[in-house]
Structure prediction request, 135 residues.
Amino acid sequence: MEKLKVLICDDSATVRKRLVTMALDVPEVDVVGQADDAPASMDAIRRTLPDVVILDIRMPGGSGIDVLRQLKKAKPAPIVIMLTNFANEQYRKACEEAGATLFLDKSTEFDQIPLALENVLQGVRADRAQQQEQE
Prediction:
């Protein structure tokens, strides 16, 4: 099976490094790129066509929520995991309405990233298997 392509978008180099390590610990996951601001995130998404984007809400050059809204217009749109220090209900609701698949708080749920990626991988496998059966 083709590896799950993951793009990491966060303004903190430390967070990106930790996310890369966590993602690569999941079998069949490939980190295809990183971005540290909103414009670079959109560029990287267009370039790499990831299956999953791990996206921070607050980044230089724009909002992660704006990036999310733009992403969800693409066909097919990647799965988006919002990962933020700003985990209040207002942001959670805005992200859900914009199409985020998952919303995680960096301070309390950061360690859930590998499990989230494993769950996405299982869903992608099931979708691909169903598509092959229909062909």
Summary: The beta strands are 4-9, 29-35, 52-55, 58-59, 62-63, 79-84, 102-105.
